[in-house]
Amino acid sequence: MRRATTILNRRVFVVLASLAALGTLYLGASRAFAQNIAQPVTLTILGISGWTPSELAGKMAPEFQDYAKQTGGLSVRIKFEGAPFSALEQKAATSLAAHSKEYDIIISDSQWLGALSTPGWIVKLNDIIQREPLLRRAEASFNTITRWAYQTYPYGSDNLWGLPQEGDVLALYVRNDLARDAKNQAAFKDKYGWKLPTSFEEWEQVTWPKFEQIISFFNRPDQGLYGFAGEYSKTYDFISDHVMSMMWMWGGEIWDSKTHQVYGILNSPQNNAALEYYIALLKYQPPGANTFDINGVIQSLTQGKAFSGLTWAAVGPAILTPEMKDKIIVVPPPGRIVNGKMVRIYCVGGQPWVINKFIDRQHMNAALEFLKWWYLPETQMRFARLGGNPVAQYVLDRPGFEQIQPWYREYRYMLVTERARDFWHNPTYASLLEVQQEAWTAYATGVVNSAKVANDYAACGQQKILYDAGFARQAPPSSCEEVRLR
Amino acid sequence: MATILLRRRHQASQPGKTPAPVDRLRAPARSGRSMPQPLFTWLLIAPSLALFAVFNILPLLWLVGLSFFRYNLTFGTPPRFAGLKNYIDLMNDRFLWGRLGLTLLFVLLAVGIETVLGALLGYAFWKKRDLPGRRLALTLLFVPMVLAPVAVGTFFKIIYDPMYGVLPYYAARLFHIKALDLLGSGNLAFPAVLAVDVWMWTPFLIMMTVAALGAVPKALLESAEVDRLTTWQRMRYVVWPHAKFVLMLGVVLRTIDAFKTFDLVSAMTAGGPGNQTQLVSLTIFREAFNDFAIGKASALSLLVLFIAVSLASIYLFVLNYGVLREGK
User: Fold this and answer.
1) CB distance from A282 to chain B under 8 Å?
2) Span A63-72, mean pLDDT?
3) Strands B69-70, B80-81: parallel, antiparallel or unpaired by DSSP?
4) Which chain B residues contact residue A486 at CB under 8 A?
5) Would the CA dihedral through A85, A86, A90, A95 be positive or negative?
6) The pTM is what?
7) I need a labelling partner for B40 at 20 to 30 A (CA). Which of A18, B89, B202, B237 fits?
8) Does residue B31 lie within any of the structural domains?
9) Domains along the sequence of chain A with CATH
């Protein structure tokens, strides 16, 4: 009798438990269904954490939410997720490789367009741009370098994979309070025989040899002041952006973009000289500058350790703090006289928006609405006022644009095809970058003491990467076997 | 449960007591439908085995499989069977052997220094049990070990900073060393990272030493004292035979762990300057999540796994050598 009761109890328990489980499932499913209908679409943006222009996208999101509701009756919620520069593509690529719908829009770096588009992870935008008048209008306004850098793969082709989120250029931040000081002016003129520049126009005429005189003049370690701060870090592309800029100005190239040949081009005598020159500038920089990243340059300037610093226009808000904004001016970085003409070519910065190919129609529509809103003149102007770098020419050409932010004159001056250039938009981008970062930081830190060895190492490594991947026709020469970094 | 069973067995072995039948030690039968013992055992370990299979065995088999394929995530081509090509490429990679050599040097120095320091400090703590504040000191000593390596790496990057760091500041003030640049120097970066690893993991070996010395029976130590053995004799014949297993377990664990060092170095130097701190785990990470060369990264991971298992096996063989010889 007792046993029968136990079994009965067990059966009742099993039935009740099953009913409870089914009930929970039913409630959960109906709730989820209801949420699908009533809840807004959540648009997730993956951007760069700690990077003002990227984070502004998240900050400006509520304005888009209002716009979407008013114009199309769309209920959209924006979620911003960030990753630092060095981890952004790992996060994006691993998610996209799994065909995940986790991120709807990604703020990629321009060089990643090849790596993201080749496996078919991102949406090709040509047709969409043609279909949407607002996007077509924005697209028509971008200048050539903007289109090449933030939109195309292969670089300079008609295949559009991205739309510019922010533009960026390298800028020289200078302590104008020190330059304008009468004593410094007189002493400099006595020593070098020419006027210490204090205005944008005067800095426009400054070449690297002249700049070296200036930073040498202000290099006063005994007073805790150094002439210059540049980027030399191994992390991500920090040293590369600067060294490649020097190479282009010294008349070199980093590869042949058609044949994908690197060996013999990257390790050319001009490039060896350019690398040597840039590393030699370390003698005018604060201790530890040979591992400086963007933050190292910012700190050197904001803490009054450096007279000048070369870094991105996008970090203007971090450098031009209330204490420093009246002391520092933002000017074009030095150029080089080639055949009697001033040549100034620097790496372009900035990032494009790309759209995840695996998201559903609802999210795709919301993403397109977001991008259309982004290029509205008022949105671009708002972005500018908050400290971002807009790219639509109809905003850049507005009267008074250059006065909105202290770096906008320089930004507009540099973001043109003859002064800004991007590097490989190739699927092997990360591998190519890694090997030259290793080589050039080895030279910057004295692991190798010859620019030629460093460039040979980078050229051999890159030639092998491109050959193994099937891009280059020529394998690295046998002499590469002997090239080592110590 | 185990304690109870042991107690029962102990009672059963007492003279004058009726030995308990083996059947009585099994799980009690219920409602006349007893579960067979092996099935009950398997049922108990099944969840752990399932987790182990899902999170260890299957990924490992997947890794083995991937290592035979040419597969790069960003090339847009499906994985292509490549046989042993990834392994042959690794064998021919002249830089890889340098990185493996650097990693072995790192393991050797880190574990060596940590073991010596850990053993000495552990012995000191064990010997001075009545030391005031001993418990607090032990607790504080373990703090570095429980911190996240990436956080430790970041702290030390700041501490080492030539412009703002505490260490270069005192080096300049006390020893007149100007602008000490530890992480930016090709010669100093490796020892600088090594020093942080030693700071972080020596407490682990202190803990293992204290535990190992705690395993020595008090009676034997007292006998050694009565017999007036020298310190060396006491260590060699009384302490070492009892303590060596726990201590060597610590060394084995540390060796495997040091071989995998990644986050500390990544945060401090990213493998630089140049390639001066490019340990093999950073190379695997670079292959997998920077270059997205999944096949090659898998092959390299297996190679490292093989080396780590070999090292651990060598340790265990050496440790058990005496026992094996006595057994023969």
Assistant:
1) no
2) 88
3) antiparallel
4) 186, 274, 276
5) negative
6) 0.85
7) A18
8) no
9) 41-168+350-418 (3.40.190.10), 169-348 (3.40.190.10)
